[in-house]
Each structure stands twice: as C-alpha cells, then as structure tokens.
Protein 1
Amino acid sequence: MMHSYFSEFYKKSKAERTKALLDAGVISKEDLLFLSKNPHLNDQLADHMIENQLTQYALPLGVALNFLVDDKNYIVPMVTEEPSVIAAASSAAKLIAKANGFKTHLTQRKMIGQVALKNVPDVSFALRELNLHKDAILKKANDAHPSIVKRGGGADELEFRSILETDHSPHFLVVHIHVHVLEAMGANIVNTMMEAVSFYLETLTKGTALMSILSNYATECLATATCQIPVDLLDRGSYKGEEVRDLIIEASQFAYVDPYRATTHNKGIMNGVDAVVLATGNDWRAIEAGAHAYAAKSGQYRSLSHWVKAGNGDLKGSLTLPLPVGYVGGSIGIHPTAQFSQRLLSVKNAKELESVIVSVGLAQNFAALRALVTEGIQKGHMGLHAKSLAISAGASGSDIELVATELKKSTHMNLETASKILSSIYP
Ligand code: MEV
C-alpha cells in the first residue's frame, strides 16, 4: 500500500515528498518540522564536535526507495553530493524487490585491537608466556571497560601474530584482542582496552609496545547481502534478459581479475555504502579503509561483489564487506540528522543497519553494471547531471529546469553549452 504514496516520488516537489513520507507513516509531524529547519547542526554543537570550527559544510540528504531486505521494507537515507546515486539505488532496489529482495548474513560484531611489540628477545618464550596468561590478559582488557562487559560484551579472544623481520622492518610480535562491541562501532572501547593491557604485555614478553590501537580491518564484523534475479526482469531496451545477465557476469569477472577495474567497481559499491554510513552518523573513513583492505585480502585488489549464473538461469549477486557501523556512540547520539536517519530507517540495532547498508551496496553495484554493459553510464548519469551543470552556469529558480531540459537535448552536454542556453534565455 505504501507504493501509492511514493509513485513518481522523484517528480514531486520537496514539500510533496516530505508530505508523502508523513502520509505513509514513515516520518512523524515532529520530523516534518525538523526537515523544514536548516541547518540541523546548531553552531554550539558544531563547535564542540571538532576543533577550530568556522562554519558547516552541507551535503544533501535524500531517500532511496523500494528496499526489501530480509522481508522488511526500508526507505533509506543517503547523503551524497553525486547525482544519480540515489536514483540508481532506488531503481535497482525496485527490480530486486520483485525478486524477493535482498537476503543478508552477518557474522558476530567483534572488533580487533592490536598491540604491536618490538624488541622481543625470545619470541618462543614470549608466545609461551602469552598463551599461559591468556585469561589474565582478557581480564585486564575487560576491567578497563566494565560497562561493555556489564551489557554482555567485552574481550573474549586472543590471537598472536609473529611478523618476521625484513630489510625494512624489525620483527613484530602482534597481540590481537577480539572484542564484542554490541551496538557501538567500538573504537573507543577497544582503544581503551588495548592501552590498558599494553604494559602487562611488555612485562610478559619482555618486549616494547610500539602502539596500541584498534584495527579498521574488521574481519570479525562482516556483512553479506545476496540477491537472485530471474532473467525476465533483466530485459533492457533491445537487450534480452539472458544477454544482460551474461554481460553483468562478465563485468564481475573483469573486476575480479583487473585491479584498475576493481577499484572503480568497488567505488560504485561505496557510492551506496558511504551515503548511508554518512547519513547515519558513522565513520565512513573506517568503512572505506576496511572495505578496500578486504578487497585485497587475496594479495590482489579485487571486486568486493560477485555475480554468477544460478542453476536455474537466474542472475545471482553477492557482496561481502567489513561493516563495523554503530547504532549508538560517537556522533550518532548527538547529531540530530543522524538521529533522524535512524528514525526514518526504523532499524532497531546495529546488525539491522549493517543489513540495509550492505544491500544498498549491492543494489548500487547492480545498477552500475547493468548500465555499463548496456546503454552506458552517461545516458542516465548526465541526464541527472544536467541540473548541476545548469546551476554551475548560473541558472537559478525555475531556470534550472529550463536550462537542464535544453541541455539534455544538446549534442555536447557541458558547462559551455549550459552557459549558452542560459544566455539565450537572457540575451
Ligand atoms: C560512478 O560514481 C560509479 C561507477 O563508475 C561505478 C562502476 O563503474 O561500476 C559507475
């Protein structure tokens, strides 16, 4: 029933869009009021968030529609400066919803902390000592952050890695502690724990701690989304569904074997992932760094997603990446727009948020590959880019639409043409 509120959503004015969200029961009257006010971050709060604050840097927040994830419908807030990202995500999600939507699988939410020890005089002795005192090390870590333990989380696993000396680096004995971070992203929890155990580790190993810090390579907090699309949903212009499926599979293979392509392929995935990470007040640099490290886990940088042909001929897609996003903590609790995003999404916890984000990444990737192997990316992209060009040329108000419409008809869609069109309106 929600569909009727959202039909031709992109054609509605901003006021009509927010009204549709209100009528559909997605947002409250208070949220409607919130959306009408700008800026959302008051200056005092902004001044507390960072140092040397001068002003605020605004980015648009929009919504992607049609997401069906683990049998639940979502309207997804996305913050991005790039035209066509939200349109592409919505259109891919609409198609995939017809094919039962996305299914997700998540590992437990554990973060890894590292203490790097150098100058360890006897590595075998040190490893014996560490193994012998595992429980004491974990206890020290947990004692440093009792509140996470009280809530059912905390450190529960140790790993020791001996990284051999090279021509460019000394030997490192690295102690990893795995920590259940529950609803938080966990950086502060883990960093506190690692600093708390570092002196004890020095005593046990007779080495020197170089540093104690969380690893953003969150291999113990992975999210996977899959989808399976029948070929009859893949027909596109003159392309038959089977052909589109096979071309998408080849595009996926190309990104698997070629790092140049894999980088762009993964950038497209991160267009979606980052936009939701940012909208929900999370640390997008952490997610970016972890995702790209994961893409290189085989020793070669590869695509994060894979598209294959299912036994029955459907197109099957999957995406796995580390997704240590938080539901509480950091700027999430204090940034009013991040709070709004949580209300809009109506996710109940960090795991559910992970499921939505990884699905958006897969949707974004599907949309990009489908366009790339059929009509090309510029047709849709530049269509939406026309408005930005019109604004860059100096158009304002109703002239933006006017210039953009003329621009789309032109052979050379660029700033020069936009300026010429604008000058022809105001000779
Ligand atoms: C543009 O922001 C993203 C794409 O380049 C992704 C891709 O090539 O897969 C379209």
Note: The radius of gyration is 25 Å.
Protein 2
Amino acid sequence: MKIVEYELRRIHLPLVRPFRTSFGTQSEREVLLVKVTTEDGVIGWAECVAMSAPLYSPEYVSGCLEMMRTFLIPALNKATEISAAEVGQILKPFLGAQMAKAALETAVLDAELKIAGISLANYLGANKTKVPCGVSVGIAPSIEALVDEVTSYVEAGYKRIKLKIEPGWDITPVRKIRELFPDKPLQVDANQAYSRTDFKHLKQLDEFNLLLIEQPLEEHDILGHAQLAEIMTTPICLDESIISLHSAQDALELKATSVINIKPGRVGGYLESARIHNYCLEKSIPVWCGGMLETGIGRAANLALAALPGFTLPGDTSASSRFFKKDITTPFEMIDGHLEVPNGVGIGVSPDIEYMNSITKSVEIFTGK
Ligand code: NPG
C-alpha cells in the first residue's frame, strides 16, 4: 500500500466534568488525530492518546507532533509501499514514542483493513459483539460529590467502577463506596502516587474486596510492586510500567503484576496489544482494556481490542457521554451496561468533518512519495 499523504490535526474537546487524577486535572481533551490517504484515495484514521503535558507518560501532544514530523513520517515515507505490520519495524530505530508510533500504525491499519474489507475486531480475533463497560471516576472534591458521581454511573448501568486514589484520598472514599455498593465490581488506580514506605497503608485496601489495585508505585519500580504483591491479597495490576510485550513478560515473571491493563497507545499499537493479549491468554493472565479519554476514533479501536477472548475484566470502555457532550464520531451509547463492538471495515467509524473542523487548532500535511 502506498501512502500519499499524512495529516496531523490537533483538536480540543471540552470534558463534561473535570477529571482529576494524582497527576493533575484535565478540563478539556487536546487530541492529535492522524489521517493517512492511500494512492487510491482510501483514508485511514487514528487517535494519538498522548495528553497535553508529560504527566502520565513521557509523551505529550506537541512532542508527538514533533516526533512524527521530524522522524517517524520521513522514515515511513522512505518506504515506497508499507503495510501496518511493517510500521513497527520501520519505526523501531527511534526509541520510545509508543503513542506516536501507535497512532501512525493504527491509521495505516485502518486504511489497510478498509481495502481488505474487514473490521479491526475480526482482524484482531474478536469473539464478542459487545463488551461490558467500566467507568473511571476521578478524585472528587468531597465524599458527597464522589457518592453522587458513582451513584449516577451505577444507575446508568456501568458494570465496574474504578476509583482514582492518591495519598489522602484512598481508604475513606473506598470504604464509603464499598459500603454503598457491597457487590459492585470495584477497583482502584493510583497512577504511581505511592512509594515503598506506604505498604502498610496500602494493605488496608485488602478489606474492600477489590478486583485489583492499579499502578500503586512508580513506573520503574518493578521490584517494589513484586514486594507489595507478596503482602497484599488484592491483585496488583500494572499500567504505566507495561510498555511492550517484553515488559509485560518480565513483570509477570517477576510477580510484580498478576493482571494487565492493555492500553494500545502505551504499548505502541494494536498489533503489540494483541501480542500481549495472546501471551496472557496462553498463561491464563486476565487482561482488560485501559482508556485515555479517547474520542470515538480511539474508542472504536479499543472496543475491537476489548472484544478479544482474553479480555475477561470490564475495561475503561465507557460511553462517549462519560467524557464528551459531543464526540467527533457518532457517539458510543451504553445499552444494558455494554457497548457494541464496531463491525464496519477498519476501525468502523470516521469523524464528523464539520464538527472536527470547528474544534481544530492546527493541521499539518505531509506528502508521501
Ligand atoms: O475511561 O478513558 C477513560 C479514562 C480511564 O482513568 C482512566 N485513564 O491512568 O488509566 C489512567 C487514566 C488516564 C487518564 C491516563 C488520562 C492518562 C490520561
């Protein structure tokens, strides 16, 4: 396949409510969209999940733009013909940049699957047509506000609740939600907010029958996670630490994690995500699909991934309305606690061009050979 044009577009979407985590508060979502056009005029879309600032991971929107424009797109342009499966190899010499690489690979894959006439879900090996929805709940201004927010999600039908925690906002809010919803699948996410001196404190979370605790310690602290896993009964699930199949295999082998959150952007794309899934399925390690406040473009592709057989826990695959009043695609609506997996060709969705244009801050176009 020959790509004749790459378009990098930065858009800004307001969030329905601020989303606070231990690494900061988001009030709007800045998104970098990638569009590729093949020589036959087939278009592929993808979303780069990097945030505006490097607070969750080292990548950020302007950095990804710079990385793509200076290194990644020129490297792809050197190859006359490319397939999605080759993108990772071509971009391998450039270190890191998983989110930027993932977006380019996904846009190429979307175009390729459109030409082949199959959906991403089929291509990846999905065996479900709908997936259960989990929801991620930010750190709230008060316990009352948290209760209101969680109650609204439970009433809407969400199958699993994830509470963001940090020192000073952990045992009390988790206890409150557990008391109110004793049977609801519940998990917590610390986004690296604790350290090895907090083990005794974190152990108190064991009494709440949580599905898992996500990334309690710093991303490089694999040993610390293994030590914590030894003393907690709550399963540890790594997120930020897992940036590839290799890192997933090592963390599992070292018993630093017993569940894996697969986020395609964080691991370099859907092809690497599928490899992690396949490895975990073989080893009977549960996986679930993480979320990064994606628009419908990224959400559609995540749903395809979450439909694979090893995704046995509900993911952060929420309805579009959880984050956006108006999405750039037809919104994903939750029915009976589930989202339908797109079955159109490629990622199965495309943006509403008029709306997308109205929230566009910049567009750069690179012509292929
Ligand atoms: O449902 O899209 C969603 C959000 C899920 O909490 C969520 N994502 O650490 O997993 C995370 C967190 C996140 C949010 C990460 C923003 C990075 C940026």
Note: The CA atoms of residues 178 and 208 lie 7 Å apart.
Protein 3
Amino acid sequence: METTLQIFRTSYAFRNREFPIGKGKALQFIYGSKQSKTKGGLNAGTATTNVYRSSTFKAEMKAMQSQCCSPDEVIFGPDFHQSLYCHLLCGLIFREEIQLVFSTFAHSLVHAFRTFELVWEELCDDIREGVLSSRITVPSIRAAMSKILKPNPELADLIHKKCSGLSNWYGLIPELFPNAKYLSGIMTGSMEHYLKKLRHYAGDLPLMSADYGSSEGWIGANVNPSLPPELATFAVLPNIGYFEFIPQRLGNLESQVLCIEPKPVGLTEVKVGEEYEIIVTNVAGLYRYRLGDVVKVMGFHNSTPELKFICRRNLLLTINIDKNTEKDLQLSVDEAAQLLAEEKQEVVDFTSHVDLSTDPGHYVIFWEVSGEVNDEVLKECCNCLDRSFVDAGYVSARKVNAIGPLELRVVLKGTFQQILDHYLGLGAALSQFKTPRCVGPTNKTVLQILCNNIGKSYFSTAYG
Ligand code: AMP
C-alpha cells in the first residue's frame, strides 16, 4: 500500500503540474477479483484488488481529485460484465464531474468503450426511466445503483444526440465527458497495440501512460507525462526497492563464447542506450527476484535512470535459430495491419503460436479483425507478417525452409472475448488482464478456443 501510494503521489504531482485537474471524480474501469484463503488462513487475491479495497487508498484518491465515480458494489461485483455496464452508467450520470478516465491497463479502456458502442441505447433508456436494466441481476449492485440512478430524460436525450452525431465513434470520450482532462493507464509494452483505437475514442484528449510496476513491486514513475505513450519512460524511484540490472548485451569475447550471463550492475552504473533485465529486492520480501522484463536506459532524471519498457524477456517465438520477442511480434502485426487500415478495418486483438506438428514447424498468427476483408488483402497481410520478422535467424531459416511458411488464421468475432472470459473464470481480474501474446502447447483451453473459431486461414508465399 505504502509503495503504491508513494508512486501514485509522485506521478500525480508531475502530471498535475502540466495537466491540472479540477474538483471532481474519475471514471475508473477497475474491478476486484475473487478472493480466496490460503491454507495458512491469509487472504489471497490480485494486487490491485487489495489496493482498491483499502480505505487509505480511497482517501488518497479523493485528495488527488481522482475518486472513483462508481460505488464499491460495482467495483467488487461478482460479474465483470455487470460491473462494466454500471461503471459506464455511473460515468454518464456524473459526466460533468468526470476529470479523467482511467484503467490499470489500456486494454480495459478499449474494451469498455467497445462495449459502450453495443449498449449505449440501453444506458440511455436506464437514465431516461431511472430504472436499471434487467441485465443487472446482482442484488448488491442493484441496491447501490438505485441510490444513484434517477429519471433524467434531458440527460438521456443529450447523450443520445451526442452519440448519434459521432462519425464512427471518433472523439466519443470528450463528447461524453466534457470536463475530462486526459485518459490514464498503462499504455506501453503489450498495451501499445490498443493505442490506435484509444486515440480514436479519445479525439483530442491527451493519453497519459501510467507508471511501471508489477504485482511484485513498483519500479518507476512517468515524470514526463506530456510525452506520447510511444515515447514514455519511467524514472526509477530509488527508495521504492533495491534494483540491479543484468546487461542484455554479452560483454567480452569470453562470455560470448561461453554464453555466460554478464554480472548485474547497480542503479547508478547503467549506461544510456543499453538494455537490461531488472532484478528486484524489496519490502515485499523478494530477494534478487528476476522480474522477467527487459528495459532500455533512455537517460537520467537527476541521478536516477529513466527506463523504457522493451519487452518480457522470454522469447515468444522460436523454432530453431530464430529469436522473436513480443516486441518483434507487435512490430510485425503493426506493419501488416496497415494494409487493413487501407480497407478501413483493424486488428481487434492478436496472439501467436508455434506449430511444430508440421515439418518444418511454422509460426501461426491469430487475428480477430473488426469487419469483412477480402481474401486478397488477407493473403497480402499474411505475406507481410512473414516478411516483417526481420530477425536474421528467422529470415535465414525461412529462406532454406528450415521454418515453414507463416500461417495467418483469422478467427471469428468475439473469440478474444471468449479468451478473456476463460481467464476471468479462473479468477483473473479484468483490471490486470493482458492478452497472452503467445499460446504455448500446454495452454490447451486457449488453443482450443482459438482453433474452434477459425474463420479463414492463409499461408505465406513471401519466400516463394
Ligand atoms: P502484473 O504481474 O499483472 O502486475 O503485471 C506486471 C507486468 O506488466 C510487468 O512485469 C510488465 O511486464 C507489465 N507492465 C507493467 N507496467 C508496465 C508499463 N508501464 N509498461 C509496460 N509494461 C508494463
């Protein structure tokens, strides 16, 4: 709690200097996860659930003018679909007061407004009549919402008019929340894919990439909030933990030949332009814990390094001599998605898989696409994906057919929602959800969901 508040206060101070917010509330798409008890009798749940429940946290949020506009019953409701609907409804009811729109990860912001596109008329009906939709069945949520929801036909008409006047939902967020100053959430790393859609909904509202941390502990604050998320860096808070950094570049010839991992260096010994894996020692009781993230040092804020998040360390895609990370996959998907943009379509979500059941093995990329796209364009996207993996190992293995042609499988609409529902069913929290960017052979359920929903499939001809 203490370190969470410390980093929230720090980044808020920097943010508020450039983007001051007035008296009001925040529309926060936050959700509690199921809690369980360990054998020893301790409460267990996701890190964010623990934070949102705390009264200290609530008091601090109020002090930062960022109090969540939804009641606790909505945040901690047992069904996230119902919670999301009510978050949206609360946002609309308090629309004039909303100062910022937040979720932990950008994925849930996009998810929320995609849902809004589907339920906005129902939300308007609820506001008009002052009666909550019958889709909300949880008694505690109904009771809490009945205290807020009153018949307001003028507000319902206004929202209806605003939504009807939008072109393809461009600029939806500032239309709904006229006093919102910015959107906030983690928008870097695996969340970058959602930026395009987020910008579409945000119109001219700035996007503020939130801090860098993990359930295991916080690392750095965004002290340059006016930079676009693509350029966001995080200044390490030196007193929030003890940090060491493993250089990613193998140093001398000997260590290269023997593949010995270089020795970790301290916070003040890192070099600008170099990439490192982070090791954390902190008050949570972790001792020299490898977080698994790779970061790049972009500069220094006073004497503390400013880090750019690069990727998870684990390689995502590898068959033999090829090495492709999450970032490589994202770049390749971004490149190919440009061909879709020409058709006014977009990649809703994506993941990947290494298929070793064929000989040679090959990469499979799963795409969910927003609308209909003809075969020729998708075929070209498939070739483009294959060509865009520029790792020397991949290219040379493809050339000699030691890796087979990349396969693009276009899945049916709603497939990624099914994957999300699957994880939530296992007790994951929507607040911390990240689409897995690679599905391994042991993840049978997700692989099954993907394979049961294949609409079309294409093999690359990029290498002849
Ligand atoms: P969790 O374990 O759910 O708390 O997620 C923590 C992981 O999310 C980190 O190890 C990172 O891989 C990723 N993450 C957290 N903050 C950021 C950020 N600001 N930018 C990019 N990735 C992040």
Note: The CA atoms of residues 128 and 163 lie 15 Å apart.
Protein 4
Amino acid sequence: MRKQQTLIKSTYFSGIGLHSGKPTSIALHPAPPNTGVIFVKQMGDEMVSCPATIQYLEQTDHCTTLQSTNFKIQTVEHILSALAGFEIDNAYVEVQGDEIPAADGSAAPFVEIIEECGITPQEAPRNYIKIVQPIHVEGEQRSITVLPSALPRISYFIDFPHPLIQQQDYQHSCTPQEFSKNIAAARTFAFRQEVEFLWARGLGLGGSLYNTVVFSESGLVNEEKLRFHDECVRHKIMDLIGDLSLLGSPVIGHFEANRAGHLLHTQLVQAILDNPDKWILLNAGTTNKSSILNGTAATTANTHCLHELQPAFHSV
Ligand code: ZN
C-alpha cells in the first residue's frame, strides 16, 4: 500500500503573473495527511483558503482559475501539475498576489522547488480513483476518454496547421521520473496573432518570450530553440496532469486526449465525479466516495491546522 506524501520543509518562489504582469510569490509548505493541496493567503489577521478541487473552479479561459469566498487565484495549472507529477498528496501553497508566477512557462522551476523542499511519506494510505468503465467527453473535433488500465497513462494527440507543430502524438506513463524527464520542461505556447489579440485586450501582460513559445506564421519568434521537437503535445500533457489533480485523488486509468484543452480537461474531471458507478476507490482509509464527490475528502479535517502554518508573506 502506497502512503500519502508531503514536503519536508517550506520554500519560496517569486516571479510575475502571466496575465496580470504583476510581481507575485508563492511558498510551498508541508501539510498533514488527508489535507490535499490547498491555496492559502494571509488577509489581514486571517488565513483564507481555497482547496485545489473542481468545486472551486471558476473558469478555464486562457488559464485555470480557482475561487473561494474572497479569494481568487489564477494560473494554477503548472504548480498543480508539478505537485501531482511528483505525487505530493498534501501541501499548502501560500500565495501573495492573485496569480501563480509564470516562471519559464513550464513546470520545471516548480519541480526544482519541490526537490528543494524534499518529499516524505506520511502515516495515511494514498487513495486512488480506479476507473472500471470508460468515461468520455467531447466538443467540436475534440475529445477525452478515460479507460480502465492497470497503471496510470496518458496518450495525447494534437494537430495544428503549423510547420513546426502539425500532428504530435505522445504516450506518457505517469511516474515522477517520466514527468521530470519528459514533461516538466515543456513550455506554454501561443501563436503570434493570438498573443497580439490578448495584449490588445489587456490580457497576458506578463507574457514574454522568456515564458512562452511564440510561433510566427512559419517559424518561431523565440531565439531559444524548442526544448523537444514535440514540446507542444508534452505541454498539453502537463496541463492535463494539473487539471486532473482537481479531482483531489490520483486516478488509475488510461487517458486518451484528442485536441483537448483546459475546458475539456475540467469537463472530464466533472464527468468522472458525475459517474461514480464507473470507478472505485482503492486504499481509501477514512475517505469515501461522497467526500470526493463533495470535494471535502481532503479539506474538512485539516483547515483547522492552518493556524499552525507559519506564513511566509504578510498582507499589506
Ligand atoms: Zn499550460
């Protein structure tokens, strides 16, 4: 039986928000068993929280945004992907600002800070959602299906009419080693017309060639070459891993994504919750299906531990 994991110590990371363009910082902290991942923020004398579960999803337009009472946090997908990719079940992500730092547009800098914190097993079993019947969502020429499988796997296919992208297909076995080696460094990508359109609307203000791969009509605007010839599909897998973590428990199943994105990823998360007859809980300990369905598997018991957290940032 696998045990839940958390971080050994706290660490900090600063940067700018991709959308706001404003300075922003996060601190990662260890959390007790059965906490899940919770975004927290010091507001006045109070520590407010927003669990990283689908029940708090606000929107997926350009980035994944979570919102609880009085607390909204944008661009959570890459830090969530790094935590899920490294099988961290329990962590507090303290934020200063309204957005997670863009870093270099990939999850690699977050992997570095997780490694700096160190990872430790905890005295609670790691529960899994094991898919026993296929679950499928689709949009126009887009779809994702999750099928029963002995091990967690992702197959992702994209097709863009650009000479440097075209059709890309990638198979990922979900292990921390594979995540670290093949997925984490894949950066956010965009097309020049799209970037110009976003900037005109006052969005993507923190976007730059440092944190985004920008494709021109036939080539690359960035001087830095692609990190992988199929960097785009690998980034899509990274986004999917982050979005799937909003289930609150890891999934054992084979995901087959076809031209998907944040909207479809999160629709699949909701579809899994809407079809509890198509999965079982393994090693559930004290967790039960209804607490996963309500998004309370992780959080009810442990928000009271928040007062023990030594905040890294003080609100102004
Ligand atoms: Zn992304």
Note: Residues 244 and 264 are 11 Å apart (CA to CA).
